[in-house]
Design goal:
- By secondary structure, the chain is an alpha/beta fold.
- It has helices at 19-22, 24-28, 47-58, 70-83, 98-109, 125-132, 153-161, 183-195, 224-227, 237-240, 255-267, 277-287, 289-313, 339-349, 376-392; strands at residues 34-35, 92-95, 115-118, 136-139, 143-145, 148-150, 165-171, 199-203, 230-234, 248-251, 318-320, 327-331, 352-353, 355-356, 367-371.
- The chain folds into 2 domains: 19-46 and 289-392, Aspartate Aminotransferase, domain 1 (Alpha-Beta Complex); 63-287, 3-Layer(aba) Sandwich (Aspartate Aminotransferase, domain 2), CATH 3.40.640.10.
- The chain contains 15 helices and 15 strands.
- The strands form 4 sheets. It has a 7-stranded mixed sheet, with helices on both faces.
- The N and C termini lie far apart (54 Å).
- The structure holds pyridoxal-5'-phosphate.
- Residues 39, 97-99, 123, 171, 175, 203, 205, 235, 237, 243, 248 line the site of pyridoxal-5'-phosphate.
Amino acid sequence: MSHSYNFDQIIERRGTQSSKWDNVGARVGNPDALPMWVADTDFTCPEPIVKAVQERAAHPIYGYPYVVPEFYTVTADWVKRRYGWEIRPEWAIYTLGVVPVINTAIQAFTDPGDEVVILPPVYHPFAHAIRDNDRVVSGAALIYEDGRFDVDFEDLEKRLASPKAKLLIFCSPHNPSGRVWNEEELRKVAEMALKHNVLVVCDEIHADVMLFGHKHIPMASLDERFAQNTITCYAPSKTFNIAGLRGSGIIIPNESVRKAMQKRFTANRAIQQNVFALPAYLAAYTECDDYIDQLIPYLEGNVEFIDSFLRENMPKIKLMKPDATFLAWLDCSELGMDADELADFFINKAKVAVNRGDSFGKEGAIFERINFGCPRSTLEEGLKRLKAEYDKLG
Ligand SMILES: Cc1ncc(COP(=O)(O)O)c(C=O)c1O
């Protein structure tokens, strides 16, 4: 059954223990700032998910669940249907979120003092996971040219070649910029990692929200050798707005890598899932394709809205047009502010809660990340608040 979604609908989220809305004062520093930071959307999640959770909630016993066999087949069907990658169901592992997977992989495949390669600016928990586990961040900074990011393959190769480099954490599509890596780029990165015997964690959590006709290519699908060297992470959480349920699926074709991950999950007791998460996961991956079909054009409209609003009203702030995701990376270099001044301008003066660009790595200092996964009217309100302050700059 198909459903019709109204993404213009404003849904009050305050008072729901929402990190984005209720914790904005404590975390961002200004309780009056409009929340456009944490990467969840302000859209209702799909009806089949709500129904699955409500049905489970209606049963009054919330004892220990187990990973039902459908998890494996549903995950394999999804990966094939949506990304064209044929996997064996037993390659999948049910996990409690992608960030815990990244931490677990660091623990399983590296030792304290080893280097873990990332390509900053990038989703900040990558660097936190590395440092929290006493490993060393090796950052092959992306090249920023002509308003877009490219991989610095020379620097990446140098870092992968280091005898201490054991793991590469790659974000595809890229958060914060929304860049979709093309087949040639993915092949190059994967070949380099193979050549230098570095295992890859490919975080493809944003794979479903492909804008403007872009297509997601799972890195591991390109070559059996890459598949054997890659842990691929997916989740319905971003796409369907269910991050609070904690449920994700990772794909590990290599049996010894899979066993090493399973061993570490077990050692950490990170194997017992939430009773509502799996019903939601199964509903998401079987009954909600129509939600994505409607979400994508809405988000494309939001991108166009930001782009034209900035061009008309704030030409010194430039949108790096995202190929994917509901996150936009704003180049604010022409404002001539340092990272603290920029954050103050957005968060305290304009009262728009964004993610500071430098939280994604020092390379992000001239940027801010804005979450446009919201009704157009909310987006307009945020942009108008910005314009009011921008106009004062003279
Ligand atoms: C690239 C990336 N990976 C992982 C996550 C979060 O993963 P989880 O909530 O499943 O731990 C996010 C959330 O924004 C993300 O952007």
